[in-house]
Write a structure and sequence with these properties.
Elements lengths: L2 H9 L3 E8 L6 H17 L4 E9 L5 H12 L5 E10 L3 H13 L4 E6 L7 H6 L2 E3 L8 H20 L7
Parallel strand pairs: 1-2, 1-4, 3-4, 3-5
Helix pairs in contact: 2-6, 4-6
């Protein structure tokens, strides 16, 4: 990284990135993958003011998507940019996702919250109020695997931003 870019990055506030999801993920291979990808993202993103990365889990056993939405809203950091994951959202390629994240960072945003709903998805009111709505593709994914896929894309975005060879497209 050249000195000019390093000075520019030093003036930026880091974009703290949270995955806020419905449901508790117990010890499992999925949990291990999420932890691994977010650990890598934290290490790689640090040099480009991306991270730290956290996961917040909310539980709403009764009341369906509306109750889940209330719990998700309560978990949002103040003034966070909200990205809702929804099958009807916009599909981005990995470099496009990286540009989305770095754009929020460059605009001086301090926190990004990526929301993942429960088995029935996110409440439509929550989706409509999100700053951005993204899809992981036209297939429907179990919400636990969606967390893994999002964590991997967060790591990939930090690798792209850092100019590392992890992303080879």
């Amino acid at each position: 990284m050249d000195a000019r870019r390093r000075r520019w990055l030093n003036h930026l506030s880091a974009l703290n990135i949270s995955i806020i999801a419905v449901g508790r993920l117990r010890a499992s291979p999925e949990r291990e993958l999420i932890n691994d990808y977010l650990d890598r993202a934290g290490k790689t993103g640090r040099q480009n003011a991306l991270g730290p990365f956290t996961v917040t889990e909310v539980e709403a056993r009764n009341g369906g998507a509306a109750a889940e939405a209330a719990k998700l809203r309560a978990a949002l950091p103040p003034d966070a940019v909200v990205v809702a994951l929804d099958e009807r959202g916009k599909m981005l390629n990995s470099p496009g996702f990286c540009r989305l994240l770095t754009g929020f960072r460059d605009d001086g945003r301090r926190h990004l919250a990526c929301l993942i709903g429960g088995a029935d998805g996110l409440d439509s009111g929550l989706v409509h109020k999100a700053d951005t709505v993204l899809s992981l593709g036209p297939m429907v994914w179990p919400h636990m695997l969606a967390r893994v896929m999002l964590a991997e894309q967060l790591y990939r975005a930090t690798a792209i931003s850092a100019g590392l060879p992890y992303h080879r497209a």
